[in-house]
């Protein structure tokens, strides 16, 4: 029987397995038969399909029509907004005593200190040799630091002034330079909100430097190297140029940066922050690019908050070119090749509901369905982009705990019609910086 007939009998398109480069085969049905089975012309907002993620070299199942299903599952309460500005019992506050007995200085800006409960330590012993290839272990060493953004516990990044956000970016760049001299990978990330696993409401992030490349970094390194080799242009540089021209998923932009909902997004309200020029690492940014990064971060994060008028929970992290490092015998890496582009992704596994609750969404599971499944509309960028349209800044909560210089956030963002929370991943030079 012909493939197209077998597909018609089965009620769907036939997949013949993986094609070249591991790409799933496309349905073999004739176009007219495919259209008939779909009930008319294909619409991305209504009909299931798979989308290719070039960074991960995998496919995402998009089933936007499932967003219509009734929900009787878990609902999260809105985050509490009565966080005290200073709490002597909060170990991240100025002058407070931490778990190890050390007393924080009375800092007035950013504050960096070694994580008191680090996931990585620089002097951990090596594991014994394995007696079987299915039970392997390898050395893992590194350094973990915590960075407080501000001395006030009731502030978050979107409520901080532009100079304060710029100070955070400067501290990120300094840490990336310092730790990158000894370790090949430096991961800067923030989990905001208790439902994202954040253990303390004080505005802070973590910085992990490791003797190995994490799985995601290894995968992105391979795919971006391949793209540069095949096409002669960094992947995320080309992607940013395409999205800037199409404007279909564009959320906010300025002269140096743009924020998009990735074509391959797998999380509700996921965004990707990209520089317009080829930048490999945070520390490679010029002063003017750091200023414009502070501005677009503020605009994006305010939009997130305004979207449902809550302090929006998210996870974000910078991805950039890994750092060349000597004296690391436990790993073998090719030299950085400029294929990366700095980038920052921001994502949240929760969907706020109009009634003031938050619908808990299961994280995409790559083990069970074999592909990550996106069960919300791919056009979610419009909701983020237009959040706070016509307003002068963050939702009203901002006025209750603004720091110096925040008085009129709208004045800092000319033509402000969007405001949303940030996701900041970095990409590599065969990678490009992304967030």
TrEMBL record:
Cofactor(s) listed in the protein's UniProt record: Zn(2+)
GO terms of molecular function: UDP-glucose:hexose-1-phosphate uridylyltransferase activity; zinc ion binding
Galactose-1-phosphate uridyl transferase N-terminal domain span: 42-214
Example GO biological process: UDP-alpha-D-glucose metabolic process
Region (Disordered): 1-41
A single cellular component GO annotation: Golgi apparatus
Keywords from the UniProt entry: Carbohydrate metabolism, Galactose metabolism, Metal-binding, Nucleotidyltransferase, Transferase, Zinc
Top class in the EC scheme: transferase
Matches recorded under InterPro entries: GalP_UDPtransf1 (IPR001937), GalP_UDPtransf1_His-AS (IPR019779), GalP_Utransf_C (IPR005850), GalP_Utransf_N (IPR005849), HIT-like_sf (IPR036265)
Catalysed reaction, written as an equation: alpha-D-galactose 1-phosphate + UDP-alpha-D-glucose = alpha-D-glucose 1-phosphate + UDP-alpha-D-galactose
Galactose-1-phosphate uridyl transferase C-terminal domain mapped to chain residues: 221-321
Enzyme Commission (EC) number: 2.7.7.12
Pfam families: GalP_UDP_tr_C, GalP_UDP_transf
NCBIfam families to which the protein is assigned, alphabetical: galT_1
Record-stated family: Belongs to the galactose-1-phosphate uridylyltransferase type 1 family.
Name under which the protein is recorded: Galactose-1-phosphate uridylyltransferase
Source organism per UniProt: Ficedula albicollis (Collared flycatcher)
Gene: GALT
């Amino acid at each position: 029987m012909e493939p197209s007939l077998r597909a018609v009998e089965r009620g769907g398109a036939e997949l013949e397995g993986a094609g070249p480069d591991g790409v799933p085969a496309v349905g073999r049905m004739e176009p007219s038969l495919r259209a008939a089975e779909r009930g008319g012309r294909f619409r991305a907002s209504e009909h299931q399909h798979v989308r290719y993620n070039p960074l991960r070299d995998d496919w995402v199942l998009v089933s936007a029509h499932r967003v219509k299903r009734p929900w009787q599952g878990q609902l999260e309460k809105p985050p509490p907004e009565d966080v005290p500005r200073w709490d002597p019992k909060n170990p991240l506050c100025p002058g407070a005593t931490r778990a190890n007995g050390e007393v924080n200085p009375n800092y007035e800006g950013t504050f960096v200190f070694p994580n008191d409960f680090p996931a990585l330590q620089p002097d951990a012993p090596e594991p014994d040799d394995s007696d079987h290839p299915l039970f392997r272990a390898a050395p893992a060493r590194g350094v973990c630091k915590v960075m407080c953004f501000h001395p006030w516990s009731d502030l978050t990044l979107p409520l901080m002034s532009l100079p304060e956000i710029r100070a955070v970016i400067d501290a990120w760049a300094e840490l990336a330079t310092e730790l990158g001299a000894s370790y090949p990978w430096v991961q800067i990330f923030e989990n905001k909100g208790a439902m994202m696993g954040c253990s303390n409401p004080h505005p802070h992030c973590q910085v992990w430097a490791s003797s190995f490349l994490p799985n995601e970094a290894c995968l992105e390194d391979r795919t971006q190297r391949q793209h540069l080799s095949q096409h002669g242009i960094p992947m995320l540089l080309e992607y940013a140029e395409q999205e800037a021209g199409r404007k279909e998923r564009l959320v906010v932009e300025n002269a140096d940066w743009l924020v998009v909902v990735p074509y391959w997004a797998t999380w509700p309200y996921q965004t990707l922050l990209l520089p317009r020029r080829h930048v490999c690492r945070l520390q490679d940014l010029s002063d003017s690019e750091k200023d414009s990064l502070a501005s677009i971060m503020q605009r994006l994060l305010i939009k997130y908050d305004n979207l449902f008028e809550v302090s929006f929970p998210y996870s974000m992290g910078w991805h950039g070119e890994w750092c060349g490092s000597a004296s690391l015998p436990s790993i073998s890496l090719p030299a950085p090749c400029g294929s990366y582009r700095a980038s920052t992704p921001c994502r949240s596994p929760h969907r706020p509901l109009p009634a003031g609750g938050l619908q808990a969404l299961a994280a995409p599971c790559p083990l069970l369905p074999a592909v990550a499944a996106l069960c919300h509309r791919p056009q979610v960028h419009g909701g983020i982009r237009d959040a706070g349209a016509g307003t002068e800044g963050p939702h009203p909560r901002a006025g209750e705990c603004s720091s110096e210089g925040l008085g009129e956030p709208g004045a800092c963002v000319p033509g402000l019609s969007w405001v949303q929370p940030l996701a900041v991943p970095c990409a590599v030079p065969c990678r490009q910086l992304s967030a």
